[in-house]
Amino acid sequence: MNRQTLQKRERDFLYLRKKKQPMNRTIFSALTCLLLLFSAGNSFADGKKVSKLSPQDSLMKAKIGEFVMVRLTTDVAQLSENDRRMIPLLIEVAKIMDDLYWKQVITERKKFLDSIRDPFIRRFADINYGPWERLNNNEPFVKGFGPKPAGVNFYPKDMTKAEFDKWMNKDKTSPYTVIKRKTDKTLSAVWYHDLYKTELTRAATMLNQAANYALDSGLRKYLNLRATALLTDKYYDSDMAWMDMKNNTLDFVVGPIENYEDALFGCKTAYEAALLVKDKEWSKKLAKYAQFLPELQQQLPVSDPYKSEKPGTDSDLNAYDIIYVSGHSNAGSKTIAINLPNDEKVQMAKGSRRLQLKNAMRAKFDNILVPISKILIDSSQKQYIKFDAFFSNVMFHEVAHGLGIKNTINGKGTVRDALKEKYAAFEEAKADILGLYMVVKLIEKGEIKEATREDCYVTFMAGLIRSVRFGAASAHGKANMMCFNYFAEKGAFERSATGVYKVNFDKIGKAMNDWCAQVLTYEGNGDYQGASAYLETNGVIHTALQKDLDHLKNAKIPVDIVYSQGMSFLGLRK
Ligand code: ZN
Fold this sequence. Notes:
The chain is an alpha+beta fold. The protein has 23 helices and 13 strands. The strands form five sheets. A five-stranded mixed β-sheet has the order 6-7-8-10-9. Strands 1-13 form a two-stranded parallel sheet. β11 and β12 (501-503) form a beta hairpin. α2 packs antiparallel against α6 (119-128), α15 crosses α19 (453-467) and α16 crosses α18 (423-444). The chain is globular. It starts with a helix and ends in a 10-residue tail after the last strand.
């Protein structure tokens, strides 16, 4: 038996062990029969396979295997009796959001999954919330389904863009209406709260019940207002109340929120929910670090005009464990951070909140970053790949968006306006490198004790490679490549002939400082031409790295994670 087969068997064994525990029926009923199939199809007990999978099933099985199952849990000891009473109610609400999301994308979950006989395809469709592979450009993988309709069920399939544009209706672009075709063939805009009245009434009732248990008055007020919002599609008051919550342990993001599922017009929002438990210890630390922001800004390794702005110190940044997730935020790539609300009126009045999902990060670190490092990082430096370093780098990336420079120094207006469509890549590059810079400074000051400079540098390098694994098309990907190529040029790391990377601790500190200065200079000068040319040459994956990335693909490093979640996984009884 080769190593890979062994690893796969170990993973199957983990699945099986989980199966013996009480399972969340809604999510994992399909998995249960799949597990039996896995074990039957792969029984090596007598040294040979009992049955052979069809090529189609083998492909699907391999695709399912690209996702690692992760159990969502937290330290339940810190939860009060009342929190524990709220959790099952909020999970039920989250399940309703899940049902509604299925309806928005295709149809009722059960109806859709029951129509697929092949258990492998069914399981993969469950992961993808439909017949289209989300992490592979929405390629259809279920027989009978063509390309994913850009407007899914938000619009009639036969509606053209021209017809929509011509149609005079004040509610047609609302984030909370579905466009339907009436029997007389004309269009109508139906409010979510009318279309999904039965489900939303149940959800609102349970939100209000949960609110009755909330000891924190901010949380209670928010849950009550959110219940009302679900039934009226007016979310402003509840968003404002969400911004005011400060001392709650439980948090619950719920409702129709993001508009990515509407690829036709980007108007309509998809239902989702995320149940969170605040990591108070880390949140306290973050509040402490925020005090150093003005000082760190002054110390940035760039000349004075580029660091004269004063960063805010009131950034609302907290760490959480995610304990249940549903609907849109459970489909496709699993998020490690939430930045809300989207309503610009609320943002103007109260700013926004950034929620870092520590256990989701941990899962990606363990299951993706560590295996990548095993292959690509020099054996003498694997000891420096540490979760605390990864977590700090990611956290301070967020903080660093608030540092540096927002306005050009030469009257070209804001950096955003001056750099136009190149802005996002440079802003991400800035957050990456200033984030690392801050972590290193705070370690040197003795404020961060959980990680060393070496940990942060090596983990940062591995993180750069991780995030360009699926290409460098996004602003994040381009930012990562600019940094990677800059570091390569300055000798911050070396790549061996066999594609193993080793950080050069003598040089990486200077390379980091110089890259900070370079990015801030492009931003401060609002140098569109210079920035564009730099990005064109350096925001790309060169041949040697591409070879190493291909190597990772062959090594079957997981693509992403899927969650086992619910009361039993939390160790709570219903
Ligand atoms: Zn960012």
